[in-house]
Give the backbone structure.
Amino acid sequence: REFILLKDKMRAATMTGQWQQLENLGTEAIRLCPSSSDGYHGLGLSYLRRGGTFAAVRHFRQALLRGDTPNIHLRLAEAYFVLNQHKFFAEEIAAAKAVNPDDPEPYYVAGRFLFQAKNELNSAAEEFRQALARDPEHFKARCYLGLSLKNMQHDTEAEQQFLKAIQLIDAKRVSFYLPYQALASFYLERNRVAEARPLIQRAVEMQSDVAANQFLLGKIAWMQKDEEVAVRALRTAISLDEAFIEARYLLAKIHQTRGDRDAARQELKNFEVSKELYGKGRLQ
């Protein structure tokens, strides 16, 4: 009875992202029932979500010794994704698909790996489509399908996927900023600035501590002659990510355009220093 209640608490901690709490509960679960995979799985997930990838792998492997479940294979695949271990990733994602072929998550994670680690856009898009065939409301898969299509220059379908992802997020009332940011960037690249502005503002409302959100808001605001918002957003982007040298360069241009030569000179100096430290940074 005590162990069942503990598992419920672990499930709740996972749903709410309370990773330290999950670590504590996982440790207690191992003490109560060391032969169960649940405690090791919980501990592994708590480490994975906080950047302790090697520790996560160790605990997921211990969990697998105690029970073969699709979730553990999927989490191990995620860890190997982070560690750039392509061979082990492929093995674990295949196992996750085999154990539960109706689950969209292994296909989504496989698509992310192909998109981000290997830049295999056609293959990534197919994985995202497979995820959506299993769950048409998987808004993350829709967003990344849109990004894959955009990079393949399939603009019409990319825009449709971004819009569908946004509709799903709004309907579900969840917070996931990426499709708003992606569609804002898509419109900005096509000089559809007025359409981009409310999207990037929504992305910033959802997650203001993402430098790319602040940078896009600053760039769009500057194009709309909204200097105050542009300067504030660019400064925020730089404070969040010192390597964001494109934000420094645009801020220097704004100061120069406004006739503030001292501020422009200082920001260009900061730009050169950052470029020396971080290379091309976000410009690449």
Q: What stands out?
A: The mean pLDDT is 93. Residues 155-172 form the longest helix (18 residues). The CA atoms of residues 121 and 148 lie 6 Å apart. The chain is about 80% helix and 0% strand.
